[in-house]
Every structure is written in structure tokens, then in C-alpha cells.
Design a protein that fits this description.
2 copies of one chain form a homodimer.
Chain A (H helix, E strand, L loop, with lengths): L13 E6 L11 E16 L7 H10 L3 E11 L5 H19 L6 E8 L6 H14 L4 H10 L8 E9 L2 E10 L12 E6 L5 H12 L19 E6 L13 H23 L7 E9 L2 H13 L1 H8 L6 H9 L10 E4 L2 E5 L2 E2 L4 H8 L3 E7 L5 E8 L3 H9 L3
Parallel strand pairs in A: 3-4, 7-8, 9-13
Antiparallel strand pairs in A: 1-2, 2-3, 2-8, 5-6, 6-7, 9-14, 10-11, 10-13, 11-12
Helix pairs in contact in A: 1-2, 2-3, 5-6, 7-9
């Protein structure tokens, strides 16, 4: 993992820095700056929550033209539900980064994560960003600082990298992410910042990112606790310095790049789930032969989010009736007489009938770090892989016991 | 409460009995029979889960004509996901009750609650029903036995009664319910069996029941853990013996009856939530001025089901940002600049801006047995009251620690 912490400066043209500007009472790192040395392509996807943070509103504006230079990110305060002042603060933060780098404020994507309903200590952030500017050129070490500075109470920093070959040129893709933590306490937020030296037009970069986040077991196919943050952001900057011919249409080179980007997103998404609040097991829900792709997603998400499935996995109990229940409530088309369920490799329910199975074998699989639950709906070609995690006392402790 | 345990035989014409036929390993009561001395009107609503128990499939058939005589109910085994044999068993159970009472099998509504994916011990049930037959006339004492026999691991039996006056005649309405418990372990299921001596046509009875279960804070407006059982059933028998003129249209007498039935359902629903698995607080979510009734329900349900809201209430933490988040993810129309939030009587967020508030006062309200969270969306006339409960370590213990 450690070698990956310098992932976002592997692609040619990127610099990064992280530090402490005094937002968190703990004194932990809380500010990161990731920049491209030259004008780059920018794409991003944001939370679907109707209540969003000020940085998301500003980010949506700045990403529109498809060009950008930098991400500026703070942890410890999410700048959500903060009205006009919150919007002003998000713009000030972007402007401070623009000044440090030498670009326009609209070329900066700001992001914040932490407690909701509090104003940013914007003076500290502006000072902090100015101090990060000179550190940008310090190399991989600063890169690891950035990976740490975006965390809230994640237990581990999250970083990943992939290479793909396009026109015989090695293209690097790197990324860092934060997942489900809380501050004092706070809601989980997922942020991911990706970099690449691939050369894509803005529409192609956007298309690749959308495909990557919606792939099986990627960012849009994971859930720690079914609560959608008001700040979720996955953004990518592409420097175009890899030296291949620009990708301007969905050709096979686009597919190659997208495959690499997808693998990177899946890697980071897995790290987020593995570090989910209180999680001891990753739950991989596989829905096969659903009536449609949408139905496969509905059913898989319902299983992964069901408190009764999550507690059954936590307890190592192969109580497959809860899986059947969750599929049934999902809204997906279901014909119980065609449905089958497996726990790990073990069939427990076959086309509408309970099946005698080795309970010790199934319980043994549920004791593993990753538990695979497969639902075959027997209806069509829809398929989805979705990642969740178990529900533990530690989740309650993290989210109930430490009061603001 | 105890005096209410004889609620279902208060309405004229009803008899009830409960006993033990040997389904539960614990040896606790597991079989109940509730019957009307004469042909009665029957109405019922069932789970919306696409995977349903065999008794629900049989019940849907039997309720179709609007006439019935009895409920036969077992706990300890839900007869869900049991294929054709399960259907045969549910019909056999209804036939046994019909024989004990002297009516047609199609006049009996069967119901089962307990572990999924196991076959009913149908021979024991048939014997048990035959033994309950002679006990039916024993009066209120047997009535309390029925209230106990339908429980799984509910901590308390649940019963309620109401009176309304129609045409100067006192009309009685009684009911018993079971809520969220588990066996070995098992999913929560909500069952409620209601009786009345009101005289309504079958369509009017159906209409009254639908209205009652969909009222604020009634059966369709509560959630312990967002998981929808495969067995949920709320059914009512009306003997027509109260002596008033039959209600055949939605007149003011219909409204009076429906108001009484609604209050009864709300009473039982409250008891179910108060006894929710691991619950220490009832959470009453009130959404006001939503763009529509449907939006009010969506937003209220999302708040009540949010693990982060539930743990905040459990921890007594007035972290209102989680409420805003849950409303935002609900799919309801939201304009943050118009939204306001109150914890108990205390405003914490006003039209898009955080509001200075007395945290001790808000935390004090959250320490009460019932916590009221109010969201004013500032958009229209939609309103909903929805009941949930907090999420505790005890919930995890109930659902994870005891393995099958």
C-alpha cells in the first residue's frame, strides 16, 4: 500500500502537497492540494443527494467546461448547509488555490468533508493553501501527505495506481480516496481524486469516468450504511503528457483507458468498503439473470443495505431467508419459483425451494474477510456486483457514542 | 395494558384461544385461533414484498370475497420460501381451523411468523388447532392466550381497543399485534388481527382498513429497520352485531368508524415500535409542507430509516446535518434554501442556514422516550408522521449473536 501513496504524482505533470491548517481539533492533517503543471482536462461526478455542500455547487460550475488545473480539499468541516456564506467560502478556497498555482479560480475544483452545518475557518484555509503552494514540487513524499490530509476517521489512507498502454506509450492513472469516517461524529463521505497523463478530449474523459464509477463493485456500487453523503465527489484531471495520439472518440484505445480507470476505481472503492465504519467483513453481492440491469442493481443494493443481512453476516449466520426478503422488497421483478441463492459456493435455495446444505460450510465462508452472496433471479440477462459491509457494535459506537 | 389483552373478544360475536403445539424449541405458546360465531365481513392488507409466505398467498385468495369467519396463526415458523408443500400446509392449516369452527376453509385466513425456509410441522399444528376448538368459548382469559401465542421475541404482548358510537349504538373495535422480534434468529414480522361488531359492507370494511393502515403513524408509517417482512398481514373481521344500520357507503358514520379503527391501528403500531428490536427511543418524524403527500412520506421514511439518524438519536446527539442528509437522499423534492429542521421544539436549521441553538436543550429532548424530529420543506401542503426507533448495540446482539 505505502508505495501506492505516491500514486497521484506518478502520471506525468502532477504535483501534490498536504498539511495542517488547524481545522481539526485533533491537530491532524486537514488540507491537500493536487495540481497539474499545465492546463488539463477535468471531469467529475457528484453526490445524487438533493442537499449538497457548497463545494459541490461550485465544483459543478467549474467542471462544466472540462478544463482544470487543481483540486483543493479540506477535511474536518464539510461546508454543507451553510447558505450564501458557505458558497462564498468555497469560492475563496478555490481562488486561494488558483493564486498558489497560477491559474484561474474556475480551473480549481474545491472539496470539503467533515461536520455539517458549520462554517469553514476560511482564513486558516487561505493561509494553509498559500503555505502548501511552495511544497508542491517536493515530490512523492508530499503526495503521501495529501492522501492523509483528506481523511476524516478512516483507519487507513487509500491510494491506487494502474498503467495501460496506448499507442505503445505507457499511460499512468493514479488516485487517492477517503471513505466512511466520522468527526465528532459526522457522516461518511466519499471523496476520490484521480490523475492521469492520458490525452483525452473532455467529453471522452467524462464518459470514461462515468463508465468507471458505474462499473461492478466501483464507486456507485458500494454502500457502507445506505446513507448518501451531501459531499460525495469523484474527480479526475488528465494532463495529456503520456505522448499518445489524443483520444477523441470511443475507439479501442478509449476502451483500454476506461478499463484501466475502472480497475483503479474498483481498487479504491474496495479500500473504502474494507475500511467502512465498524466493518469486519466485505460483503460482495452478485445478482445474476435479473430482468434488467436496473433490476440487478436494485436487488443487489437492497441485499447489501439490509440491516438484517448485514447483522447475519456479522454473526456468521447463513440465514438466507433474509437475503430472499431483501431481494423481495427491492422493487426488482422477482419470481420466487425461479430464484436461487448461494452463500459462497454453497447453494442454499434453489428455484423456490429450500435446499439441504452443509451449515458449517456456509458459516465457514461467512467467517472469511470477504463474504460472497449470489442471487440468481432466473429471469433475464441483468447482472450486478455490489459491495457492502457487515453491521457491528463498532458502527454504533462510532456513530452514537461520541457526541458533538 | 393487561385489561386490553381481552380486546379481540370485546366486540360482540368473537371468541379466541391460544396455546402451545410444539413449534418453538422454547416451548412457548405458538398457536392462536380467533373466530366469529357467525359469518362476518373480512378485509386484509398484506406485505408489499415480492417474496411472500405461503399463508399470504392463501390469505389473498380467501379474503377476495370479503367474507370470513376466523384467523388461525402460528409463530415459530413463517412458512416462507417453502414452495408447493408450503402452500399445501397453509391450506391444511386453514382447513383444520374450519373444521374446529364449523365453516368452509376459504372462510379462514391463515398466518405464520418465524424462521424462513423451513416447513411447518403441520401435524402438530392440525392437532393443536383441534385442541383449541373447545377452548374458544372460555372467554377473556383465552383471549390473552391468543395475544401471547402470536409473539416471536417481542418483549410484551400488544393489544388495544376503541369504542365509537354509530346510530346511538356502541361499536367495539379490538386488536392484537406482534412486532419485531426474532427466533433463532429471524426477521421481524408485523401481524395484526382486528375484530369489530360494526356492520359494514365488505367494500366499506376494506376501504376503512386501507385508510387506517395508511394514516399518520399507523402500520404503513412505521419502520424498525427498513426491512420489509415477507409475512406482514393486518386483517379485520366484522361481525355486524352492534345493532346499527349497515354502513354501505362512505357517509359520516363510515368516517366515525374509520376514525376509531385508525386510532386503534396507531395504538398498536406505536406498541410495535416501542418494542422494536433493541429500541430505547421512539423517533417520531414529522415532515411538513412537502411538495406532495408522497414526497412527505418519502422524506419522513428516509429520516426514520437512516442508520446515521438512528445512531445519533441513540447517542443523544443533536447532529441535525444527518437529518438534512436523509431528506436530501430521499428522492423528495427539496429546496435547501426553504428547508427548516427542529429537534423537539428547538429550531436547529432555518431556511437553508444553521441556527444557533441550545445544544443542552436539544440533547435533553433526545434523551426522552419519544424523540420528535420535524422537517419543514417549505414547498407545499404534503404532510406525514412516521415512527421509527433508534439503532442500538442490542439490535446487533439480537440479530447477529444468536445463530440458527
Amino acid at each position: 500500500m505505502d508505495q501506492n501513496l505516491s500514486s497521484i504524482t506518478r502520471p506525468r505533470g502532477f504535483l501534490a502537497a498536504g498539511g495542517t491548517c488547524g481545522i481539526k481539533a485533533s491537530g491532524k492533517p486537514d488540507l491537500a492540494l493536487i495540481a497539474c503543471e499545465r492546463p488539463a482536462r477535468l471531469a467529475a461526478v457528484f453526490t445524487t443527494n438533493a442537499v449538497v455542500g457548497a463545494p459541490v455547487l461550485v465544483g459543478r460550475e467549474h467542471v462544466r467546461g472540462g478544463r482544470g488545473r487543481a483540486f483543493v480539499v479540506n477535511s474536518g468541516c464539510s461546508n454543507v448547509a451553510t447558505g450564501q456564506r458557505g458558497l462564498d467560502d468555497a469560492r475563496t478556497m478555490a481562488a486561494a488555490a488558483a493564486e498558489a498555482i497560477g491559474c484561474r479560480p474556475t480551473e480549481v475544483l474545491p472539496a470539503s468533508t467533515g461536520v455539517i452545518g458549520h462554517h469553514l475557518p476560511i482564513d486558516r484555509i487561505v493561509r494553509g493553501v498559500a503555505e502548501l503552494g511552495p511544497k508542491l514540487a517536493a515530490g512523492p513524499r508530499s503526495d503521501a501527505d495529501a492522501a492523509h490530509a483528506i481523511l476524516t476517521t478512516d483507519l487507513t489512507p487509500k491510494a491506487a495506481r494502474r498503467c495501460v498502454t496506448i499507442d505503445d506509450q505507457v499511460v499512468e492513472i493514479g488516485g487517492i480516496a477517503k471513505g466512511s469516517g466520522m468527526i465528532a461524529p459526522n457522516m461518511a463521505t466519499m471523496l476520490a481524486f484521480l490523475t492521469t497523463d492520458a490525452d483525452l478530449s473532455a467529453p471522452m474523459l467524462r464518459r470514461a469516468l462515468k463508465r468507471a464509477v458505474n462499473a461492478d463493485a466501483s464507486f456507485n456500487r458500494i454502500s457502507v450504511d445506505s446513507d448518501t453523503s451531501t459531499s460525495d465527489t469523484v474527480a479526475i484531471l488528465a494532463s495529456g503528457l503520456a505522448g499518445h495520439q489524443p483520444i477523441r472518440e470511443p475507439d479501442s484505445r478509449f476502451d483500454d483507458f476506461t478499463a484501466g480507470l475502472t480497475a483503479l476505481c474498483q481498487d479504491l472503492a474496495y479500500q473504502v468498503i474494507r475500511d467502512g465504519e465498524g466493518a469486519e467483513h466485505v460483503i460482495r453481492v452478485v445478482v445474476e439473470h435479473a430482468g434488467s440491469e436496473a433490476d440487478a442493481l436494485r436487488a443487489a443494493r437492497a441485499v447489501a443495505d439490509s440491516p438484517l443481512v448485514k447483522t447475519a453476516v456479522h454473526g456468521g449466520d447463513p440465514n438466507w431467508g433474509r437475503i430472499a426478503m431483501a431481494v423481495g422488497k427491492s422493487g426488482a421483478q422477482v419470481n420466487p419459483a425461479r430464484m436461487s441463492i448461494r452463500i459462497g459456493p454453497t447453494p442454499v435455495y434453489r428455484e423456490g425451494r429450500p435446499t439441504a446444505f452443509d451449515e458449517a460450510e456456509a458459516a465457514g465462508h461467512m467467517a472469511e474477510p470477504e463474504v460472497r452472496l449470489t442471487v440468481d433471479l432466473g429471469l433475464g440477462a441483468g447482472r450486478c456486483e455490489f459491495l457492502g459491509c457487515d453491521l457491528s457494535r463498532q458502527y454504533i459506537a462510532i456513530n452514537a457514542d461520541y457526541t458533538t
